[in-house]
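Wait, can you check?
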Amino acid sequence: MESLISRHVILSILFLSIISSALFLFKIFDNQQKLVFCDVGQGDGVYIRLKNSIDILIDAGPESTGMSECLNKNMQPFDKTIDYVFITHPQIDHYGGLISVFGHYTIKHLYVSPIISTNVLYTQLLKEATKQKTDISPIFAGNLLTIKDITIYVLWPTKNYIKSYALENKKSNMYAPILDDNNYSLIMNININQSNYLLTGDAPIEILEEVLINRKKTQKITILKVSHHGSLTGLSERLLDLADPTEAVISCGRNNKYKFPNKNVLKLLQSHHIIIRRTDKEKDIIYPL
């Protein structure tokens, strides 16, 4: 009897080892391009993988392991370099997870919203980036980055807005915010393979509407990342009319204390017949590119 049990245990271990090895090999040879809205809890974090192991992050969620876990699942096993990271604005639910990422990966380029934060963790993050010799650059509306098959258009904040509503610090080439940090969120339009992703940070409705009114009509927005985790401050009837997305993604934590997404936001999206996807329901949301 004991011999039979032992044989079953050995076969089970062998089976699990084969499965684990197969999954590991699949990750090594899987070169599929993808955009992932990572399940980082109550925050934002987007990972993009392009061919030839080019990796891009846009935000990294709060100070937790959420982003590191997402990278571990979606990056190739021996790839320990992230080529481009964007921090939409210096609030901890958008950059906190980068502390953990810096501990495991080399980051080549870091693009930030052009405002100063006195938050200790944000200061620590920038020091770590400097120590790692990461290239750090503030970025404004009008900047355009073409990386392999992907084009990133920065739509906000404009230099005029920054100069009007922030105090220049010539020593650091950055600006001290006068208004809520959310007003300076990077808004980016990502275009790849006939799909258009509008990433909005925590930008408020009035700014999003202005951006979309002034946006040069190039291509229909396919995926809208709903601003501010599904808060009422990030969506309006007019905004949806201007954006006219096919799908909306809401990045928020399960059972979060803010009760995001707001019920009225969900009703508004439903009334426009927009497909709703949520990280608190689906975990990582993956779009093949």
In short: DSSP finds ten helices and 16 strands in the chain. Confidence is low (pLDDT under 50) at residues 20-27. The CA atoms of residues 116 and 155 lie 20 Å apart.
